[in-house]
Amino acid sequence: MVKISSFNVNGIRAAQRKGFTDWVAQTDPDIICLQELRALEHQVPKKIKKLPYHEAYHTAEKKGYSGVGILSKEKPVRVEAGIGVDWIDEEGRVLMAEYSDLIVFSIYAPSGTTGDERQDLKMEFLDHFLPFAQKYLSGDKPVVFCGDFNICHTSIDIHNPKQNKNTSGFLPEEREWVTRLLETGYEDVYRRLHEGETDLYSWWSYRAASKDRNKGWRIDYHMGSPELLDAAEDAVIEMEWDLSDHAPVTITYSL
Questions:
Q1: Which of the following is catalytic: 57, 108, 186, 221?
Q2: Among residues 58, 153, 159, 246, which one is catalytic?
Q3: Annotation marks residue 148 as catalytic
Q4: Is 246 among the catalytic positions?
Q5: Residue 126 · residue 88 · CB < 8 Å
Q6: pLDDT digits over 66-99, tens only?
Q7: The pTM is what?
Q8: Catalytic residue among 57, 136, 148, 201
Q9: Looking at residue 90, which CATH number applies to its domain?
Q10: Residue 80 to residues 58, 65, 220: CA-CA distances in angstroms?
């Protein structure tokens, strides 16, 4: 069994102050894909560095911004940072760790909420990402892209679809992109294990007691190759933990 958690920590230092290592001790994932580190590698808290995990990070050049990481009990046979596009790689958005029988990515897609320029860059990122992801489907190991894609796919993935139809993260062209990713052969593993279930969210605004009222968005995914859907046994969004404005999305696979 392999338990994989995807978690946008909204600042690894802030998450640690709120009990990140307590969550690790209690949940005990085999692999943790981190997004939005908002720290350089030497700024990752010592308590996290003392965990019995191998660490890999791909941080942004801009201080206090973006960044992804992968913590794993098994040492990866190979780690690769980036996607081969300068501006994306400078923002620290894609990290791969290959293991003996599995390939895992931590992904942090750009947000388009700050205006048209960032929305255009988000769409550019998605355009680059699709063929990048596609080539891994023909490999000899199962692959999973874990992370914050900053998109709700369908109307049940967002608490107020009508009001948000023109909002970044729920735009028709973004939702269509997720459909295209799934059409290439990837599976939204969490959703496939919770078909048709409503009120399942992974991110809540800090405003208006959104989490207490469960007015959220499901923007954090495990996008897995078909073998991983077959192997998926249990999928949970750990919303009982208040370490970030996101909750960990944790799936156990029988690998």
A1: 108
A2: 246
A3: yes
A4: yes
A5: no
A6: 999 999 999 999 999 999 999 999 999 999 999 9
A7: 0.98
A8: 148
A9: 3.60.10.10
A10: 9, 20, 21
